TrEMBL record:
It comes from the Bacteria. GO terms for molecular function: DNA-binding transcription factor activity; transcription cis-regulatory region binding. Pathway: Amine and polyamine biosynthesis; betaine biosynthesis via choline pathway [regulation]. Keywords: DNA-binding, Repressor, Transcription, Transcription regulation. Residues 8-68 form the HTH tetR-type domain. This is HTH-type transcriptional regulator BetI. Gene3D superfamilies: Tetracycline Repressor, domain 2. One of its GO terms (biological process) is glycine betaine biosynthetic process from choline. The gene is betI. InterPro entries: BetI_C, DNA-bd_HTH_TetR-type_CS, Homeodomain-like_sf, HTH-type_TetR-like_transc_reg, HTH_TetR, Tet_transcr_reg_TetR-rel_C_sf, Tscrpt_rep_BetI. Repressor involved in the biosynthesis of the osmoprotectant glycine betaine. It represses transcription of the choline transporter BetT and the genes of BetAB involved in the synthesis of glycine betaine. Repressor involved in choline regulation of the bet genes. HAMAP family: HTH_type_BetI (MF_00768). Residues 31-50 bind DNA.
């Protein structure tokens, strides 16, 4: 967590530099020295305000998660409250568009997932993000399905989002947002049709 007093101009600069370095050399190669050089600051500034690489990585992920949340909330705000399937599509779309689909962000996500398995604080951020996604989906799905069905489909959609992200991060061509949306919407349509027949 950055210390109080960190100049607002420096935080975005350091976060951007962190993602750029992770994009080039991966998380393990992303040293404080390389990040500070990329940002044009001294290593002392990173250590002072973030306590080192770990603190800077945590702040970088907080920025990425905030951006994801803001994108999804903006998408939902633009839709009527009763347009449940469109709102689900908007939640899915928010995971694959704009900032979230940039190469540097995708590689940072992949590094974060890997690192969070062995780090309590980053793992907590991942769990918060997962719970938020499931909650958003269940709110909309509960108007279309029973609570048990909504829970199952929400987890299915979340798994597809994560799987497409992982495959996209490992693919030299990256994530194809149109294809990602088509795959998940196809799954959703099939689930809604299946449960409607029961």
């Amino acid at each position: 967590m950055p210390k109080v007093g960190m100049p607002d101009i420096r935080k975005p600069q350091l976060v951007k530099a962190t993602m750029a370095v992770i994009d080039r050399v991966g998380l393990h190669g992303a040293s404080i020295s390389l990040i500070s050089k990329e940002a044009g600051v001294s290593t002392g500034i990173i250590n002072h305000y973030f306590g080192g690489k770990h603190g800077l990585l945590e702040e970088t992920m907080r920025v990425v998660l905030r951006q994801l949340s803001q994108t999804i909330m903006a998408e939902l705000k633009a839709l009527p409250k009763d347009a449940h399937q469109a709102r689900i599509n908007a939640i899915v779309k928010g995971n694959f568009e704009g900032f979230q689909s940039e190469s540097e962000v995708v590689k940072t996500w992949l590094a974060f997932w890997s690192y969070s398995m062995h780090d309590e604080q980053l793992n907590r951020l991942q769990r918060v993000n997962e719970k938020r996604l499931i909650s958003h989906l269940k709110i909309e799905l509960k108007s279309l399905l029973t609570p048990e069905q909504a829970n199952l489909v929400a987890h299915g959609i979340a798994s597809l989002i994560d799987g497409i992200w992982l495959r996209g991060a490992l693919n030299p061509d990256g994530i194809n947002p149109d294809k990602a949306n088509a795959i998940i919407n196809d799954y959703l349509d099939k689930q809604l049709t299946f449960y409607a027949k029961q």
